[in-house]
Amino acid sequence: MTTIDPRTRLLLEAPIVPTVLRLAAPNMLVMITQASVGLIETYFVGKLGNDALAAMALVFPIVMLMQMSSVGAIGGGITSSIARALGARRRDDADALVLHALVVALGFGLAFTSALLLGGRWLYAEMGGTGASLEAALVYSDLVFAGAVLVWLFNSLAAVIRGTGNMAVPSNVTVAGAVVLIPLSPLLIFGWGPIPGMGIAGGAAALLLYYLGGTLAFWLYLRSPGSLLKPKFAGVRLRWPLFRDILRIGLVGMIATVSTNLSIGIATALSGHFGPDAIAGYGTAARLEYLLVPLAFGFGAPLVAMVGTCIGAGDRERALRAAWIGAVMTFVITEAIGLAAAIFPHSWLLLFGNEPAMLLAGTQYLHVVGPLYGFFGVGQVLHFASQGAGRLWWPVTGNLVRLTVAGLGGWLALRWGGDLIHVFIAQGAGLVVYGLVIAATIAGGAWFGRVGWPRSTAALMRRLTPQ
């Protein structure tokens, strides 16, 4: 019988709360740092003027779509597949999944490159980009997406390592890269001494150098004696069942990721009806919402590994208990951030600009949507936990309902003569239904069969806190 690695045993047997907290801390640091990479660039690019800031607001949802797809959707599929293989003691399959994950990453990276180089101008124009802001958006976008493969390889290799329960290596590599990026980004944007300033393109170049260095570091770790997985390429045959195991979770997760980013993309386009300053204000404020994704993923990635390992080992009750504990923790943190942003909106917005119209739009968004961030956090973390369970239908449904409420509601608000704040009200309503749909269906048994809500409060509590 194959012995269980101590890290796998930890996921199966250790107390849930301290284990989740211990694994979440470095992983949250990873995701906050990675999200901060974009904020660092926005801060420096904002010094180039409002057109450059509006350009970043146009491109950022698409960059985040790629990030969330490679980290949370396909990356979650990779982490879940490896965790379940290790939980079931299929070590050979776990090792082989590394090669399959790299092939998947290459394919998606090339797809993003082709789509954005060919269709970027049309897309950003549809989102409300015009004139100088549109041209600046294309300069940044063309360079970033020309190197999309690097982003996909970086995040897929990090997902491979997380699948073993190791959150420390991705944390260390990401933080070290950010330390290098902080001086590198302004150096390439503004120039210094003999190095000429590249403007907004310098931010894109610095970002790609960050992902290149991180990808090499992850690969060196996987080839080292300290790695639990021992990837082999020579003589390894690509197998459809392993691709399917990643993609059946990852592709369904992609639907949810696209819905999340499309909601923000639509809101950006609707904000465009009120001019570039409204786009800049909404885009700057909505970056705080994007910061909630890495916070939720900080708890979500350990839950993918823990839930997947427990499901692979047949311990359903522990898997479900871990998910609810993670959901409560995430709600508390994200709701606190949202309330703070609603009370002190300028503390966030003034980091990126001080144009009155931009500040007004951003403040309206944070006043309306900030107090509802807890629902977004719950939906996000339960989505990640559902990846570990291999059951994503209802989380995806929650995302689609959010998209419908936010997109259709915002469009109707403008059609009926509403103002920008009514677009934001629709966004907030979308977050509420998103969190409630996912939580309610998991409570109803969505992971283990058809949803059937308990008829009594006592039965509901037994499902929420299984013994």
UniProtKB/TrEMBL annotation:
Molecular function, one GO term: antiporter activity
Signal sequence annotation: none
Highest taxon of the lineage: Bacteria
Topology class, membrane: Multi-pass membrane protein
Residues spanning the membrane: 20-40, 52-75, 96-118, 138-161, 173-192, 198-222, 246-270, 290-311, 323-344, 364-385, 392-414, 420-453
Keyword Protein biosynthesis: no
UniProt keyword terms in alphabetical order: Cell membrane, Membrane, Transmembrane, Transmembrane helix, Transport
Entry's localization field: Cell inner membrane
Parts forming coiled coils: none
Recorded GO CC terms: plasma membrane
Name this protein carries in UniProt: MATE family efflux transporter
Protein's organism: Cupriavidus yeoncheonensis
